[in-house]
Each structure stands twice: as C-alpha cells, then as structure tokens.
Amino acid sequence: MPENLWIWIVLGVVLLGLAVGAALLAPRLTRRPHEPSAAERPAPQAPADDATTDATTTDDAAVDGTSPPTLPEASADVEVPVLDVPEPVTGRLARLRARLARSGSPLGARLLAVLSRDHLSEDDWDELEETLLLADVGAGPSAGLIDALRTQVRVHGVSDPVQVRAMLRSALLDLVDPSLDRSLATDPTLGEDGARVPSVVLVVGVNGTGKTTTVGKLARVLVAEGSDVVLGAADTFRAAAADQLETWGSRVGVPVVRSHKDGADPAAVAFDAVRHGRTEDVDVVLVDTAGRLQNKSGLMDELGKIRRVIEKEAPLREVLLVLDATTGQNGLMQARVFGEVAGVTGIVLTKLDGTAKGGIVVAVQRELGVPVKLVGLGEGPDDLAPFEPEAFVDGLLGD
Ligand SMILES: Nc1nc2c(ncn2[C@@H]2O[C@H](COP(=O)(O)OP(=O)(O)OP(=O)(O)O)[C@@H](O)[C@H]2O)c(=O)[nH]1
C-alpha cells in the first residue's frame, strides 16, 4: 500500500465527521432565541358579541333545594377569552356632566334665559313654571322652585348673570336633594354562622326600560371596584335576555346562572343564582327579572315569590327599579306600581342621554321617596354612572 494512502483515509474520516456534526447543529442555530411557553403566549381574542360563559343550569326543583346548580366541567382545551377592563367608576361623573350639557338641555338654558330678563312679569314666572313642567319636574316641585326663586329675586334682584346662575343652581340642587343616601349595598355580610353571605341586588321594571343592560353594566362597575359577582338571569320570559346577560358576563369573566327551559320559574333561577353565589363565596349576586306582567296582583305574586326564595339564602339588600327617562309621566305610573309591590330601595334612570327632560329625577324621587342611585347615559358598556346631584345639576345648566 502506498505510504500516503493512510493520510488520505484519515483525512476522509475527519471530513466525514465534520459534515455529520454540521448537519446536527444546523437546526439549533436557525431556531428563534426564545420560544414562548403556553403560559407566556397571549390568550386568543374572543368574539365581542357572541361569546358565552360557562353558564350554570337550573330547574324549578331547585327552589326546594333539591337540585343544586351545576356548572359544566371546565375543559382543559377551552380557549381563554381576553376580558374587558371596565372603566374606573370615578371617571364617569365627568362624562355624565358632558353628556347632559351636550343634550342641549332646554331646562337649564330656558330657565336661565327667562331669569336673565330685566324685570320679571307674571308671564315670565308662568313661563318658568311651564318650562319646569315640560321637563317632567312635576307640579309640586315646580311650584316649590318658583316660590324659592321669587323670594331670592325679591332679596337679590336678577341683574347679575353669575348670581342668577348660582341662585338657580342652588334651587335645583335642593330639589334633587343631595342629602339622600345613594350608596349601593353591595358588600357581603356575615350570616348567623359567621360565614360570608353575598349581597343580593334584584333589578325590576317593565320591559324595555333597560334592566338587562343595567345588570350587565352594573356587573362591570362592580368588577371595576374589585368585587366578585354572579348574575342570575331570572328574566325567563324573553329567552334572548339570558343570552344577552351571558354576553355581558363573559366580557368581564362573571358567571351567569340561567335556565335553558322555556318559561322556567324565575324564582327558581333567582334561588339558584343566590345559592351559587354563596357556594362560590362571591360578594354580590345581581338578579335580572322580566317585569312583563299584565296586572298588579300578578306582579305582586311573582316578585313576592322571588323575594321569598332569595331571602331563604341571603338578605335582599337592594331592589333597583329601572325606569326609562324618556317615558315621562308613564314612567311615573310604573314607578308607583313597582314601589307598592317590590319594596324598591333605589332607582336607575336609563336613557338620560336620549332626553332633555332631566326633571324626571326630581319627580320620581318624590313619587317613590327613594333616591336615584344610578343613571344610564348610553348604550356603551361603561355608560352607567353613579348619580351625583351636583354633576347632574351642572349638566342641566351647562357650563
Ligand atoms: N340610549 C340608551 N339606551 C339604553 C340605555 N340603557 C339601555 N338602553 C337600550 O334599551 C334597550 C332595551 O334594553 P334591555 O336591557 O334589553 O331592556 P329590558 O328592560 O331588559 O327589556 P326586557 O328584557 O324586554 O324586559 C336596548 O337597546 C339597550 O341598549 C341607556 O342608558 N341609554
């Protein structure tokens, strides 16, 4: 064998080794420096409108406590939706003011226009009173405000526009009554056995006033404040109401207790929702209702039953009556009936963005003797604001 053949063989083996090594290393060198793990990857975006939560199902037998609510098994490969972050509640007061001001508010503007005249005649005073009546303030409160203004005008005159505005602001504020307690009882309490019991809020009112929307918006307010919430879809009259509520709940990670049975007993759903709230140790259970009843005794029976079954499980801390601000005197008649049968503790005045008749706030508080606690200012998810008398009156008067 020639002497340099060995050299060629050794060289060949070395080259082969290098080729194999390079082939093994190549994929490692081309991989991205850091592959995120499943936990590090952003969760996929859920569709905004048709997403639903894992809903608790219920049936009528549950009223007797024989059928506890059941939640569908959580599946490991279920996509985790991205939850909305509701707007902080404090920022909403400014929006209330801006919206009221933007609505053109004939009430404030017309009152100021008349009051700014040099010498107020009897006709001017009549015009002022008529303006208040047209804004749904109501006869008694309107007459009271005119009396107060007449006294002020006698004492101070009406020449200085700044003074006129201050005078009117103070008179309107008195009518709205800043001294009323407008807080919502949504903190859990302690039961006799020392266990935490959720606060239950029942939402009532005739159909179409905005109950379901209000429950959804209120859930967001409570989530923004750090509360654990459960929703009860006791509006079993309109099947879409429960779906609507599930959409609201899913956007902020709040479970919804509902029935999939047509025309199920609303009291059974309310009961299951409260029991589920207790089991899950949540802070608040919000219960939506139908309110689609032809007569007062039917309404009384249904709401009475809902109240009784809720109170078996937890204290009913709030009964919120939802009224549509655009319905004027009609809304007042509804308020009267619900006030008599439902033990209303607070009013939610919706659709204030659609009317310049803010005076309904005054009339409805007088009618029921309970405060307006929340106002709806639009169809957006965060268009629900705690009612604040000063901001409201400033909105009426404009800047
Ligand atoms: N502009 C405006 N629209 C509102 C407001 N609140 C509710 N709505 C609208 O009013 C309509 C009725 O609202 P719902 O929440 O379905 O009313 P509901 O009282 O639950 O109705 P039923 O389930 O039929 O009894 C919807 O189109 C809402 O978007 C509000 O503050 N402003």
Automatic annotation (TrEMBL):
Subcellular location: Cell membrane; Cytoplasm
Keyword Signal: no
SMART domains linked to this entry: AAA (SM00382), SRP54 (SM00962), SRP54_N (SM00963)
Transmembrane intervals: 6-26
Catalysed reactions listed for this entry: GTP + H2O = GDP + phosphate + H(+)
HAMAP family reported in the protein's UniProt record: FtsY
The protein's role, per its UniProt record: Involved in targeting and insertion of nascent membrane proteins into the cytoplasmic membrane. Acts as a receptor for the complex formed by the signal recognition particle (SRP) and the ribosome-nascent chain (RNC).
Protein name: Signal recognition particle receptor FtsY
Organism encoding this protein: Flavimobilis rhizosphaerae
